[in-house]
Amino acid sequence: MGREKYGMNGLLPSRVETIDEQADRVLAQVDELADAYNQHRFLMSIYSTNRTLFFNAISRDVKKLLPVIYTPTIAEAVKKFSQHYFNPKDAVYLSVNEPDQIEQVLKNGAADLSEVKLMVITDGEGVLGIGDWGINGAAISIGKLAVYTVAAGLDPSEVLPIVIDAGTNNQALLDAPSYLGLKEQRVHGEEYLHYIDQFVQTAARLFPNVLFHWEDFGREHADVILNTYRQTLCTFNDDIQGTGIMMVAALNSVVKVTEAPLSEHTVLIFGAGTAGIGIADTIYSELVNKGLEAEEAKKRIVLYDRYGLIHSEQKELTSGQKRYAVDKDSLASIPGNLLETIHLIKPTVLIGCSGQTDAFSEEVVKAMQTHTNRPAIFPISNPSELAEAKAEDIIKWTDGNGLVVTGSPTEPIVYKGVTYQIGQANNALLYPGLGQGLIITRAHHVTDGILLAAAHSVNEMLDLSKPGEALLPDVSKLREVSKLVATAVITKAVEDKVSRVPIKEPAEAVEESIWEPVYKSV
């Protein structure tokens, strides 16, 4: 009947499959492919032609397929985006050289959508841990939105991936014949920020209920953009805020396991870029939320970058780094390396977001244990080859006492008869539910209270009394966690009076908003 209606008789084989049968066929073909990148390419070809089938197939094995459609495989997809480009309909591309075209381009991109409720925007300058990849960062915006739908059931006809082409400083891209972006050095500073403002004002006018999700912007601009609009628009930066929220969620688990309040922990953050400052800011907010005075809260957070321990006498510090710079006069000496810093500061938590492979050596890890029996060590840099340490090594070096969170998926580790489940600081456990709650409430802006409510909800389903239990939920529980996060976000948005929609039953509102990947009757 459907084939007749659409003039498709004879254009397809005789057998008519259900969506379940089609999804089984897709997954069987995925299994035939030799590596994750080719699996990614195949799945994204399905995404481009039949999104309902794509999401139905992914939902059948989220734990297996999420790393294929997003991190860590997405890093290779970014690098090869221009080289293997095949579908012009998957994202919207804005050029800084054509500010007069912003409105028309956005209208073109939204033409086939029912309503634009969410945009994931990137300029590709700070992609994951792999740097400036220009418009190849489109793979990130597309992939991120796919995760929103997989995890929280956002309707794919209500989201728009945006790529801002501001040039690139990646010489390999500038020299590559296949590169599809502007072949010129990046625009920076006032000219760039003026263009961003034109984009923001136009998008907010065209799509009054939209959530701006900023992704993988460079250190120079990410913080500025977020702080410019965070009080006046519903806006969120996953690199700055999302990673910080996940670290607070992991620290809440550390608090339960160690039975020591967060105010008694000292956090050393190895890597003081966009993610590192975002982590510091969110932990600071949590410490203040728990009753610590502002100055005392700052003393509980220490930053370390390529120049060493960040202190007050260093030059050319960013505004974020200045907030947490240790008073040089309070130091007996300036430590010469990470090991000396650990002995001086005596942190109980070590977070790695530097992209420096194997920076957490056996000596460094064992130094962490000299002043706390259960050191929390989180090598969260992505992709996995950039991680500061391997979870298996940390467990071994601490004789099973290390509390570990990684940035990429890690198989369970058996050590001395105990199976250690390693939690992944996968922001996919956070941002889909956060976005879902913000979209449902049409929140005026995102308060710090909303972010902390999201952090507190991530771990609600964990039983941390079990030996070897992960500090964060498994990604196989993505949908359940997203519902918890969305419900907490709605509750807090109403409490903070930023919801523009009256909502009496947050959990019901979440259930009613979920889009299911099934075919409609024809």
Automatic annotation (TrEMBL):
<dbReference type="GO" id="GO:0051287">
    <property type="term" value="F:NAD binding"/>
</dbReference>
<dbReference type="InterPro" id="IPR001891">
    <property type="entry name" value="Malic_OxRdtase"/>
</dbReference>
<dbReference type="GO" id="GO:0016616">
    <property type="term" value="F:oxidoreductase activity, acting on the CH-OH group of donors, NAD or NADP as acceptor"/>
</dbReference>
<feature type="binding site">
    <location>
        <position position="216"/>
    </location>
    <ligand>
        <name>a divalent metal cation</name>
    </ligand>
</feature>
<dbReference type="GO" id="GO:0004470">
    <property type="term" value="F:malic enzyme activity"/>
</dbReference>
<dbReference type="GO" id="GO:0006108">
    <property type="term" value="P:malate metabolic process"/>
</dbReference>
<feature type="binding site">
    <location>
        <position position="382"/>
    </location>
    <ligand>
        <name>(S)-malate</name>
    </ligand>
</feature>
<feature type="domain" description="Malic enzyme NAD-binding">
    <location>
        <begin position="240"/>
        <end position="494"/>
    </location>
</feature>
<keyword id="KW-0520">NAD</keyword>
<dbReference type="InterPro" id="IPR046346">
    <property type="entry name" value="Aminoacid_DH-like_N_sf"/>
</dbReference>
<feature type="binding site">
    <location>
        <position position="239"/>
    </location>
    <ligand>
        <name>a divalent metal cation</name>
    </ligand>
</feature>
<dbReference type="Pfam" id="PF03949">
    <property type="entry name" value="Malic_M"/>
</dbReference>
<dbReference type="GO" id="GO:0005829">
    <property type="term" value="C:cytosol"/>
</dbReference>
<feature type="active site" description="Proton donor">
    <location>
        <position position="70"/>
    </location>
</feature>
<comment type="similarity">
    <text>Belongs to the malic enzymes family.</text>
</comment>
<keyword id="KW-0479">Metal-binding</keyword>
<protein>
    <submittedName>
        <fullName>Malate dehydrogenase (Oxaloacetate-decarboxylating)</fullName>
    </submittedName>
</protein>
<dbReference type="InterPro" id="IPR012301">
    <property type="entry name" value="Malic_N_dom"/>
</dbReference>
<dbReference type="GO" id="GO:0046872">
    <property type="term" value="F:metal ion binding"/>
</dbReference>
<dbReference type="InterPro" id="IPR037062">
    <property type="entry name" value="Malic_N_dom_sf"/>
</dbReference>
<feature type="domain" description="Malic enzyme N-terminal">
    <location>
        <begin position="47"/>
        <end position="230"/>
    </location>
</feature>
<dbReference type="Pfam" id="PF00390">
    <property type="entry name" value="malic"/>
</dbReference>
<feature type="binding site">
    <location>
        <position position="215"/>
    </location>
    <ligand>
        <name>a divalent metal cation</name>
    </ligand>
</feature>
<feature type="binding site">
    <location>
        <position position="426"/>
    </location>
    <ligand>
        <name>(S)-malate</name>
    </ligand>
</feature>
<dbReference type="InterPro" id="IPR012302">
    <property type="entry name" value="Malic_NAD-bd"/>
</dbReference>
<dbReference type="InterPro" id="IPR036291">
    <property type="entry name" value="NAD(P)-bd_dom_sf"/>
</dbReference>
<feature type="active site" description="Proton acceptor">
    <location>
        <position position="144"/>
    </location>
</feature>
